[in-house]
Amino acid sequence: MTQMALVIDLNVCVGCHACVTSCKEWNTSGEAGSLADFRPYDADPSGTFFNRVQTYEAGEFPLTDTIHFPKSCLHCEDPPCVPVCPTGASYKRKEDGLVLVDYDRCIGCKYCAWACPYGAREIDEQRKEMTKCTLCADRIYNEALPERDRKPACVLACPTSARLFGDIHDPESVVSKAIRERGGYQLMPEWGTRPANHYLPRQKVSACGGEACSCKTSPEGDEVASVETQVERGELHLASIATRV
Question: Which residue ranges form the domains of the chain, and what is each CATH number?
């Protein structure tokens, strides 16, 4: 069974929000649009987005790190949002594994949003319908577009190529190779939803490599653990902080 998904490289995401704006632009004018914006320039802005980038500071001075964490619908292989929908508006498509919403059936009850452990769904307050990332389903199969452009808008817009797109069930796909070779992981696997989207873990790299380099050692003289090791030790909870709304 095909399962299309994103693989996001946290090493090269710079938090520029190009993926956010390109997603908003494409989907507002596509099958999902229009996506409401209320008070976009006020102190308390509100709007509907399929994709967001959350930024955090981790660690303690002087060994701090800035983490940019893009997050959207993870297109789970066992999505908890689908069985709770009373009208069948939320469904998982068999041919490509995408989790989608039939807007004609959606009544805006928010059951699916409550069931999603990742906070990946947003109600459009103007239309009173649930919206979410579709992985640009109306674009990736559009034969009117050149083949190189048949990718999600966020993938095409990323200036650092931090976002990869493909079939994670195909062992020869670019996403499967990245997951296999670079230790790609799922977000909060303990929920048993089997999210299709994966993340490539950040790697700690020394800036200068000298013996006195503070990038390599802690104040106590110990080697600085990688972000992945810090997560395992319970020193840094990426999965937890990345799902806060």
Answer: 4-241 (3.30.70.20)
Give 92-129 pLDDT, tens digit per residue: 999 999 999 999 999 999 999 999 999 999 999 888 99
- From the list 242, 233, 230, the residue with the least C-alpha distance to 60 is 230
Q: 226 pLDDT band (50/70/90 cuts)?
A: low
Both structure tokens of 18: 């190009």
Scanning the structure block, which residue is given the tokens 């389903």? 137
Signed CA dihedral, 82, 85, 88, 89: sign only: negative
CB neighbours of residue 176 within 10 Å: 20
Q: Name the CA radius of gyration of the chain, rounded.
A: 19
Asked whether the beta carbons of 1 and 94 are under 8 A apart, the reply is yes
